[in-house]
Write a structure and sequence with these properties.
7 helices; single chain; mainly alpha; 190 residues; 64% helix
Length: 190
């Protein structure tokens, strides 16, 4: 016996009980009509399922609504992979400009492990700061009063010390000098 046969048998039983309750409700007590309604609904749903119409309706509704959560997750995963590939190829294009996207990075305040690098060590182009063209590394080191051979920690500490002194909200604050200091620091940390 299959599930369909059992379901048809149960639906037939519920149809019989519904007919019996309707007749009894008309003849004996109208309250039995209220009991017959749930039996009739159950019988209809069982027949609808056994006939295959429920499955067909659910399938049509699913097609009308669109992709399932699993399909949407796959689409998002494919889109993310495509973005990563595009970022990798954009990172490869940056190699011609002198930047390789590998090696140690200083980040904004020297937080090497917290740097926003994607798979394969390439930077996400959207995370890059605005272009700082116009200031060379030599000028940046001069702005920070540092020797070009200074290490990351020295650059960071010199930047912080001068930023405290030049910040526009401070006593000796100079907005233009502070902006130039920030540009110099960005050049040295990119």
């Amino acid at each position: 016996m299959t599930n369909r046969t059992v379901l048809v048998g149960m639906a037939a039983t519920f149809v019989g009980l519904t007919a019996l309750l309707v007749v009894a409700g008309v003849v004996v007590n109208p309250l039995l009509l209220a009991v017959a309604v749930p039996f009739g609904v159950a019988a209809y749903l069982m027949w609808f399922h056994a006939s295959g119409r429920l499955r067909e309706r659910v399938r049509r509704e699913a097609e009308r609504v669109g992709p399932t959560d699993r399909e949407r997750a796959r689409q998002r995963a494919r889109a993310a992979e495509n973005r990563r590939d595009a970022y990798r190829s954009a990172g490869a294009g940056a190699a011609g400009s002198g930047r390789t996207g590998t090696g140690t990075s200083r980040g904004r305040f020297g937080g090497g492990a917290r740097d926003a690098r994607g798979p394969g060590g390439s930077r996400d182009p959207r995370d890059r700061a605005p272009s700082t063209r116009g200031m060379s590394e030599r000028e940046a080191y001069a702005t920070l009063d540092l020797d070009p051979s200074a290490d990351d920690e020295t650059v960071r500490s010199a930047y912080r010390e001068r930023a405290k002194r030049l910040h526009p909200d401070g006593e000796e604050g100079d907005e233009e000098a502070f902006k130039q200091l920030n540009r110099a620091y960005e050049v040295l940390t990119d």
